[in-house]
Amino acid sequence: MGQSSGIGVLDKAVGVLRVVAEEPCGLTELCERTGLPRATAHRLAVGLEAHGMLVRTPDGRWRPGPTLTELAGGRPDPLLDAASAVLPRLRDITGESVQLYRRDGVQRVCIASAEPPVGLRDTVPVGARMPMTAGSGAKVLAAWSDPAFARSILPEATFSERVLVDVRRRGWAQSVAEREPGVASVSAPVRDSAGQVVAAVSVSGPVERIGRRPGVRWAADLLAAAEALQHRL
């Protein structure tokens, strides 16, 4: 696993990073390639994931995360670059608050947003962390996540496996007063160049303004924005 620093846990963590950098892998492959016990490999990979050094693809494989890129030279996140061009346009079309979420373990994180200049807004600050158990953004990220992860959150979720099946079939999700009373939202998956879902783009606002079926109103514009994000990636 390379040179030894004399700090065992550090050497093992670096070994995990090196293996994943060579080729994304799941837990079984990670154990085989590092020689680490299953519990140790899982603990290290999850810890590195929490710091953004690894991220997990929807099929449960770890790959290098954005923190490594930032530390290597401060190069911008291509998803954030795409969001800076696409989200304001979606906000202008809908007149509502727009967010971009990325899953981080058992939470989703708002990594970009665009707010209308006036009127009642659903302000979600960048960096805000929310559970993966409620809201249209959570449904989208769960629907295209590792099936084992999706099953693990369902007991506490406001949605069911059947709902996730419908989300995958339809291509978008909606929610009414799930995350917060009086707020409705609709979300769609954002895919990278390989077709993997890497984020969820959302439109949200007061129920009395966007209605109890926000997908009927905004799904087409949302899907177009998701496609524009993918093209920029």
Automatic annotation (TrEMBL):
GO molecular function, one term: DNA binding
Pfam families in alphabetical order: HTH_IclR, IclR_C
Matches recorded under Gene3D superfamilies: 3.30.450.40, Winged helix-like DNA-binding domain superfamily/Winged helix DNA-binding domain
A Gene Ontology BP annotation from the UniProt entry: negative regulation of DNA-templated transcription
Signal peptide positions (record): none
Domain HTH iclR-type: from-to ranges: 7-66
Domain of life per record: Bacteria
Residue intervals of the IclR-ED domain: 67-233
Coiled coil location: none
Keyword line: DNA-binding, Transcription, Transcription regulation
InterPro entries referenced in this protein's UniProt entry, alphabetically: GAF-like_dom_sf (IPR029016), HTH_MetabolicPath_Reg (IPR050707), Tscrpt_reg_IclR_C (IPR014757), Tscrpt_reg_IclR_N (IPR005471), WH-like_DNA-bd_sf (IPR036388), WH_DNA-bd_sf (IPR036390)
SUPFAM superfamilies in the cross-refs: GAF domain-like, Winged helix' DNA-binding domain
Name this protein carries in UniProt: IclR family transcriptional regulator
